[in-house]
Amino acid sequence: MYLANEFDSKKQTLFLLHGFPDNFRVWEPMCNFLNNHFNIICPSSPGTVTDDSDLLSKYRLENLSKYYREILSFAMSELTNVTIVAHDMAGPYAHHMLGFLPDDTKLICINTLSGQMMLDRKSNPKQMIRSAYMSLFQLPFFNKKLLSNYWMDLRKSAARLGRSSILNIPASYNENILNGFFFYKALIRDVKIFLDHSKWKNDVLYLWSDDDPFLVKPTTNEMERRYDHYSIIDVESGHWPMLDVPEDLANKIMQFHGQKENDE
């Protein structure tokens, strides 16, 4: 776990959940602009910092959501004034967590979707085409070397399709990249749990990059089916805006909470 600053019970708490194949360090550039305004908790999901032979079980929706809640409970005496911030594959887990947090818990989605929206993109066929690569991670005969090579090729494709520089795309976690594939396997196994929840009443902000090569911006129809209260803001970035435009992203998060932007 990475606790970015000292806890202040008077401040709103941001609980930052990374995606695949990252760890908590992906949030550091953005946290530099938020440390003075929020409590910040950045956990690393199981397997992204150490190897583990039982990752598939730990990445199941109930288990990983429980793990995240225990981290929150450790840092806070009362689970109030919390905003969950999720990127990429953390989206389904973040949505599931709303079920056992207070009703006023806010959610910020950065280039991510709920589990339902990941599975049901019939109103957005472009996403079905872009997500075709996910099927590779379900094949049992794909060895680690092949999957690792595929990820490196994916990085190059991301750079060509809108990233500012391939150097900014996380690649320093080589020993942990393969563990991240368990995200995909666990998500597929939990399809029924995703579909059991239809709509959220929480206040939700979507921050969506205009040059994301992996995910297509959700349609109004998709959003209205899933949320009572939501807003969506475009970001000039690739898939990792917390690395590309950290200050801009921090300012948008502050605006969502009714705070003034950084003057730095």
Give a brief rundown of this model.
This protein is α/β, with parallel strands linked by helices.
Report on this structure.
By secondary structure, this protein is of the alpha/beta class. It has one domain: 3-Layer(aba) Sandwich (Rossmann fold). 38% of the residues lie in helices and 16% in strands. The protein has 13 helices and seven strands. Helix 3 crosses helix 4 (91-97). The longest helix is centred in the middle third of the chain and has 17 residues, at 144-160. The radius of gyration is 17 Å and the shape is globular. The two termini are 28 Å apart.
Task: Enumerate the strands of the largest sheet in spatial order, edge to edge or round the barrel.
Answer: 1-3-2-4-5-6-7
Query: What best-fitting shape do the alpha-carbon axes yield?
Result: globular
The poorly predicted ranges are 161-168
Tell me the total number of β-strands: 7
First CA to last CA: what distance? 28 Å
Helices and strands, in order, run as EEHEHHEHEHHHHHHEHEHH
Structural key phrases:
264 residues, Rossmann fold, 13 helices, alpha/beta, 7 strands, 7-stranded mixed beta sheet, 38% helix
